[in-house]
Amino acid sequence: MKNVANRARAYILLAVCVLLGVMPGAAPAMADGSSSSYNYSYWGEPVASPAAYQATELWTGDSLGTGPLKDPSDMHVTPDGDIYVLDTGNNRILILDSQFKLERIIDSFKQDGAVQTFQSPLGLFVTENKDLYIADTGNRRVVQLDSGDNVVKVVDSPQSEQLPENFTFQPVRLVVDKAQRLYVMATGVYDGFMEFNSGGDFTSFIGANKVTIDPVEYFWKRISTQAQRSQMVMYTPTEFSNLDINEEGFIYATNGQRSNNVKKLNAQGSDILRRLGYWEPEGDIYATVTTGYTRLADIDIGDSEMYSILDANHGRVFTYNGDGYLLYVFGGMGNQLGYFNTPAALERVGDDFIVLDKALGEITVFRSTEYGRTLNQAVRSYYNGDEEQALQLFRQTINMNANLDFAYSGIGKAILRQGDYAEAMKYFKQSMDKTNYSKAYLLYRKQVLRAHFTEIVAAVFLLVIAVFAWIKFRKMKVRKKVVPREQRAG
Amino acid sequence: MNKELVKYPFELMAHPFNGFWDLKYDRSRKTNLVISFIILGLMVLTNVLSTQYSGFLVSMYNPNYMNSLLEVLYVLIPVIFWTVANWSITTLMDGEGKFVEIFTSTCFAMLPLVIINLPWIWLSNYISLQEASFYYFSGSLATIWFIFLLFVGNMTVQQFTPGKTIVTILLTVAAMAFMAFLCLLFFSLVQQIINFSMTIYQEIVLRS
């Protein structure tokens, strides 16, 4: 009896193991978490991937020598590596060099002889010539300071026919383009970003989100009375949650939706983000009610059209290349190094990432692993058109991570350029890249047909002759059969 | 004789009104059944082969989850459901079709699906993405032909008017959905009963 029970227990244990092992929809987080990461395959399954980035340092207000940070909400890194941290709760801006050594603190500025301070500022931006723009949210203004902390201009209470009568200007995040145009994300504005010209005058809105309607809610709204309807929530487009600008002047914006939450806006405000990847660039493609949905808090644009988004709900950073293929994922929620409590801002310092945690007032530094560096370099070489080097680097990448489906496509493209069509087809098949596979296949087919032209023509010729001969033969046979019957009749 | 037997389903495909009339009134039930099972077998074969051997450009199957036995069921279960549901409905609606006749006419109607899709499995390995539209076109052609044959077959076998046939076909689809629901209910209940008795067994065994 005991024996049977033991065996039964073993079977159940086995069944449980098998079930857990093959569960495809299970949360993508890995069991050990620390060393490995994941990526999404063509089939939408989370597959194991080596870590591309690892947390190496943690900076708090104390280790920076500035006293504790209080609800810091934004960061900006200049091309030469200076890090600007906006310490919202303490109403100050910390300027650090790339080694996190404190350079100076800005907590006030002089305007017309009077000293002015900030009141819970939420966003900042630094231009190439180190002009500092601060979204001074509590004071309802945007302040521009030059590199010597002198006020250049203050933008407040914008006037326009497009704005409502009782409009209060509460800037939250902002970017500035090369023509000194200012794009401000403001609370309570559903028409997109507010664009100001270099003189600080409001010109227009840009890039509004579309209204999304829940069918169930729509149904209830249809059958309710006017009085009930006025009590309900209005359909308004979702607000943006953050924005960044790249060197070419395109604004990348995120919003709080579950999907379609990343946009690349051109000057007209239309979305031109390339979505050629296996899955939409929107963070985790699977979400469950228990783990919660992706909610993007920040976006950062790197070189070669790479961009990263920060999911505030799961604390993960997703990086995509310009075509929208997911490169790597890192981060998470937790208490250890490399995990966050309330991630708020994401920036790149060279090839490294820094993530700002709002509630803890900490900055985590992530440095690339060899895998991450190789992949970054591969994407860069490919973007710059150096296919030879991209081929080498992508080969190294898949040696480290055979699950990275899109890397095979990069190899395939380089091989296709070299003229080895059959080999290129193999790689495109591996990356499930049907368009390029078809291109390679057409070239391959032409090559084969051309090489065996004589044989093929000869075969067709012989076949035609054979068919004719067969028909002739059949006719003769029929005639022979017919003849005796006629004789019989006669 | 043998040659004519091979020709017969193809003639039915081209001239369905005469063909299904012959199937109901002139042909022996036994030959009909034999041909039906051959066509059904070929249909199963087509389905299984297409999951495995379709060209990369047109294949949509995740090879990790490909299961031939399930592919067999994906053909057999709809046919069984259709036949049972159609028989149940038409019996109530004064149809003249016997169960066997419904089954054979359904199987005969599937012939276009086989003779168009089976060669395409092989051919689809030699097409580009632009030429894939031919693949999809012939696929839809086969489906439309199949539906037309199913319609004519049902009409002839039951001796219905076209309008009544459409109504019965719609009712049949509804009945199939209902059957699927009942089957799911049945199996989930059986599963729970098995689970329950298993738990009791374990409880007893582990306590002794």
TrEMBL record, chain A:
Keywords from the UniProt entry: Membrane, Repeat, Signal, TPR repeat, Transmembrane, Transmembrane helix
NHL repeats by residue range: 65-99
Residues spanning the signal sequence: 1-31
Lineage of the species this protein comes from: Bacteria, Bacillati, Bacillota, Bacilli, Bacillales
Pfam families: NHL
Segments annotated as TPR repeats: 405-438
InterPro entries documented for this protein: 6-blade_b-propeller_TolB-like, NHL_repeat, TPR-like_helical_dom_sf, TPR_rpt, TRIM-NHL_E3_ligases
PANTHER family in UniProt: E3 UBIQUITIN-PROTEIN LIGASE NHLRC1-RELATED, PROTEIN LIN-41
Species assigned in the record: Paenibacillus typhae
Transmembrane segments: 451-471
GO molecular function: zinc ion binding
Protein name: NHL repeat-containing protein
PROSITE patterns in the record: NHL, TPR
From TrEMBL, chain B:
InterPro entries, A to Z: Yip1_dom
GO (cellular component) term, any one: membrane
Pfam families recorded: Yip1 (PF04893)
Transmembrane feature ranges: 33-53, 65-87, 99-122, 134-153, 165-190
Domain of life according to the entry: Bacteria
Membrane topology: Multi-pass membrane protein
Protein localization: Membrane
Protein name, per record: Yip1 domain-containing protein
Organism: Paenibacillus typhae
